[in-house]
């Protein structure tokens, strides 16, 4: 039986087998072709449609030339955080990538240069806000941390200082901020010796509010310190203010300014009003850009007033939907101070303020 069936199928078998083989080969080829096309499309799709960055996955992914041309992959993605990064880190610590910081392409692009501009003060004046606002400008690259070179780390030398700086292109300005420079006796001479052309920015604020802000910060770290009143006066009944207390001394702006004017002409020092920086950040930043000789690119479109925080927050780009506010340590609720103490301190500062207004030719309206 079987033989008969086979026997009947006999003459057609080679043709059918050939057809089957042909169909099988054809379907195999088609499958392979589709598979190859799909894989290829997927690659293109990822890099073109998703805009995946050209980056290196690790050592060995390319030669030295490739390393310079491609950006290293950042496995963590964009760094979350706020512009108000902690100040006064260990000198030499790498600058954290802060929101608002501009990126000039490859980190290897450009040269590390000594700063051409410095925010030299004053502590609690609003220096972090100015730094974070100005570094959005494409012509400015700033060190995110405070290097304290001209006060604490001068002995390390200029090469060390330069090594901390971000790389800049020829057209970009290198900037750093260390608010304690303003009250450091040696700072003006040391900065002058680095470069007599250094542009100096000082953010000033009502010295009474500044002192309370300074005290509030210290209290947050050392809750056992004496009261503000106790530290402010040598004899409160006699109205004798303790000028040896740093929180008081820093606010005697006219005194500190004298040391700077021995080395730098007034035109080389720009004063930012800490008060206007909050009420009109775009106006203040406009003047900072003029002073630095760069185009006014940071405008009112970069700011959004956050009512809950009570401060302007920064939009990295004009169209950015997510404004970033400075950190929790910026814009703290101040310790309540007896209004009489405030009046006494206002009286104490009055002559220093008036002298300061006369010297700089601007009335900051702190009275
Ligand atoms: N936009 C914005 N957001 C938050 N805070 C702002 C802003 N602009 C100015 N300020 C004021 O900056 C004060 C802190 O000053 P500094 O950054 O110079 O402080 S520090 O010396 O670096 O510690 C900080 O002082 P306090 O209010 O006492 O915390 C703020 O009043």
**Main sheet characteristics:** 5 strands, parallel
Which value, in Å, is the CA radius of gyration?
32 Å
Strand content: 5-15%
Low-confidence stretches: 1-12, 30-105
Strands of the largest sheet, in order across it?
5-7-4-8-11
How many beta strands in the DSSP annotation?
13
What is the H/E order?
Answer: HHEHEEEHEHEEHEHHEEHHEHHEEH
Principal-axes shape call: globular
Alpha-beta classification: alpha/beta
What small molecules does this complex bind? Answer: 3'-phosphate-adenosine-5'-phosphate sulfate
User: Span between N and C termini?
Assistant: 120 Å
Number of helices: 13
Architecture overview:
The protein is of the alpha/beta class. Helices cover 40% and strands 12% of the residues. The protein contains 13 helices and 13 strands. The chain has helices at 2-9, 13-49, 64-69, 127-134, 157-164, 187-194, 207-221, 228-232, 246-249, 253-261, 276-279, 281-292, 339-360, and strands at 55-56, 71-72, 111-112, 117-121, 140-142, 167-168, 173-177, 199-204, 233-235, 240-241, 269-273, 303-306, 311-314. Strands 5-7-4-8-11 form a 5-stranded parallel beta sheet, with helices on one face. Strand 12 and strand 13 (311-314) form a beta hairpin. Helix 10 runs parallel beside helix 13 (339-360). It is globular. It starts with a helix and ends in a 7-residue tail after the last helix. It binds 3'-phosphate-adenosine-5'-phosphate sulfate. 3'-phosphate-adenosine-5'-phosphate sulfate (PPS) binds at residues 87, 123-129, 179, 213, 277-278, 311-312, 326, 330-332.
